[in-house]
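User: quick one, fold this
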Amino acid sequence: MRTLTLGLLAAMTAAPALAQDASSDGGWVVYGGTALEYKDRPDGKGLPSRRSLEAYVEAERLHFYGGVWAKVANDESYNEIDVYGGYRRDLDSGLSYDLSYYRYNYPTDSASNYGEVILTVGQTLGDKFYVRGYLATSPDTKLSNAYVRFRYYPADTWEIEANYGSYQNAGPKAEEEWDIGVKHYFTDETSLDLRYYNGTEYARGYVGLFLSFDTTLLGGG
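Assistant:
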């Protein structure tokens, strides 16, 4: 089973952060974003680093949403075009939830395409902390995965974040992966993320850099 990239995780969370409750009045809101991602030799020493250009567009109305996320990498085997849709809410209590379906599509390896039903639940803890749980299962592969995210806001334009996940694959036991990173917002729409990744199935731990731009394209005023 394919594990989530930082780019897709960012797309999953950027639009809700921009939206607040913008679509609750019945109007359409359209979000979009683009990103550059660099990973330092994630497949092992002596193998090339990975670079990719990513983009998404998403429309939302009355908390229902749908979108397309795509990635073009320097190794075409990592190219990807995903479609998704779901329903999400952010409550005044700081609790948020999101039920969605994602379809992952690989242009150079269509046999690996699959879908997932995903439930995420998050909770703000005061002004400085946020925690989120993520559960997913695939009707196609019959495999599941689970992730948890912890985030700390030391200042208005900084975030420190850690993710831990366990995912099933064709092997006899589940694999694990984790990352920790720091993010700085230059503006409300532009950020830079520096992160360290590792896991039980990884060839080596590696560093990644992620420069992203997310904005509201239509509505939300």
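User: anything notable?
Assistant: The radius of gyration is 17 Å.
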